[in-house]
Each structure stands twice: as C-alpha cells, then as structure tokens.
Amino acid sequence: LKTTKMKNKSDNLNGSADLLADAIRKVFQETSEKSNQDMAEFRTEIKDDMAGFRTEIKDDMAEFRTEIKDDMAEFRTEIKDDMAGFRTEIKDDMAEFRTEIKDDIRTTNENMQAQFAEQEKKIASMVKR
Predict the structure, then answer these.
(1) CA-CA distance, 9 to 20, in Å (whole number)?
(2) Would you state the pLDDT for residue 32?
(3) SS3 assignment, position 21
(4) Count of CA atoms in the C-beta half-sphere (13 A) of 126
C-alpha cells in the first residue's frame, strides 16, 4: 500500500512535471510565434518605408530635373535676348561709325576741293602777272 501510494505520488509528480513542461513549451512556442509575426510585420513595415522613400527620392529627382530644365531654358532665353541686344547695339554702333566716317570723308573731300580751288586761283593769279 505504501508502495502504491508512493507510486501514485510519483506518477502525480511526473504528471505535474509533464504539465509544467508542456505549459513552458507552449509559452516558448507562442512567444516564438509572436516574435516571428513581429519580425514579419517589422520587415513589411521596413519594406513599405523603403518603397515610400524610393518613391519620394524619385519624385524629388524628377522635380529637381524639371527645375534644372526650366532654369536652363530661362538662362538660354536670357542669353538669346542679351545676344540679340548686343547685335542690335553693334549694328547701331557700326551704322553710326559708318555715318561718321562718311561725314569725315565728305568733309575732308570738301576741304581738299576748297584748298585745290584756292590753289588754282593763286596759280591763275600768278600766271596772269
């Protein structure tokens, strides 16, 4: 009887130990599953964040390229306008310079003709004497 009681006690202890071991295994298993779920969610969040970041970078780069393109177009327009203005100024300056040269040549020609006429008069008066 004593042996049977001890055996029952031993079986009860073994059963309790098995229940405790099963409970501990279940807690570790649930914790492991929860950790795996958390890691999966974390990876998904990181993947989504990276995709969003790539999209933002792509959009920012597209906007930056558009701004540079617009700035370059504006710069080219300003350069064309400046060049057109320079051409007009040079054309006007050259026209003014030609006019001044023509006036100087005409004046010089008129002065020389007047001097020749004066010289002819002097020569003619000297020949008469």
Answers:
(1) 16
(2) 92
(3) helix
(4) 6
Structure pTM? 0.46
3-state secondary structure of 78: helix
Question: How many Å is the Cα radius of gyration of the chain?
Answer: 54
Long-range residue pairs from 69-72, CB within 8 A, at least 24 positions apart, any chain = none
Which two structure tokens, joined as six digits, stand for 123? Answer: 């020569």
Residue matched to tokens 């914790």: 31
Alpha carbons 28 and 21: distance in angstroms, whole number: 10
pLDDT (mean) for 25-45: 94
Cα–Cα distance for residue pair 48/3, rounded to 1 Å:
66
Kindly state the tokens that stand for 118.
């004066």
How many residues in the chain? 129
pLDDT tens-digit map of 53-103: 999 999 999 999 999 999 999 999 999 999 999 999 999 999 999 999 999
Over residues 6-21, the mean pLDDT reads 76
